[in-house]
């Protein structure tokens, strides 16, 4: 049972494109810091202008970030965090990693024979064959020299360190069997299957969950690494009354799976405009079930994930990485969902996108019981479910629109108050980059991919503030990366860095 059209459909409706690529400029050096006594604050160090998307990461004392590239492509760039000088760059492909749609550089840390560990940059680079086929590159951070390469696959998730700590693991599509498998890339460059939970014709979600069709109904199954079924349930038992052929999310909290099923949607494409209409979000459902027995623990209708830090995508059991839920239910990361009345429409063109939605209630919930812990009705004009329009004071305090105006809400407790006009807000600004390597659905090429999410200063209305991009150390501490002692943060114009000023007497 092929699921590739469904995956491509998910990709199609998440598409968009913003500004075209801009040129590069050399780093702008800051003036020499003045002498000071006492604790030294972080001071502006340098700035570069470049079409970056997503925040930079650190790898072995080197900064790494993704950029738009000429010809509607992507590239990875490594830079010196102390000067902003570029060290190397290479072309990047999103391959088939469509969960979440955003691209972010990743690192893998591997053990060597002597027990020492080394950190490498891992990314996909496109092949001439196109159609999102890519090579997996594992390279040295400072030089870009490849240490391992896996050729010609449709990769489904970002690469990550395998549980053995010595190899690189990644989910990829086996086109011969139409199933997603976990592959292991070893030091010799061999790419072998390490887990295949799903037999041919089954769809694999990771964490040992597969969807099987017994000829009359769809079954959600938990299987072990030997492909033995641990438990099996009709999908209609997990999601009563819901239609399975819609958007799906999975995550895990301890011994509990939490799954969400979106309502039925209609997707049309005409004259370059992709339109997704969802008639009624009340038909969505979120369900939790025991990972070991499959028993339903709780089920709530009319809610979908929003303002989500969990990714709602899962990795194979026992593996670590950004796709796996980190922490226990008492984690500091808030659990939040949205309850909406009516439906919504999302329209996307090459030049712009539009999103309309009726009233939404923001809810916190307990992942162990599903019970709502707090509720906050939002204004009909709030675009919370669009995600990238929400400004933040920090990672657990968002600013949303209610009927009282702009309010800041603690996502863990639900406490909220009117946002101060002088507050420095941070917007998740979706920096979409055009990527033009077509894949085909219904004989029509689909070209565009989201690039990544920046965090920029914004005003009380949640609109990015174009007057200044001097974000300061506090912003870098929260949203950028500290790389070899230097805070580096991406803005819509490029990168900015802040370093510790030296005390002089």
TrEMBL record:
Tell me the protein's name.
PQQ-binding-like beta-propeller repeat protein
Record keywords: Signal
* Source organism: Nocardioides acrostichi
Signal peptide coordinates: 1-19
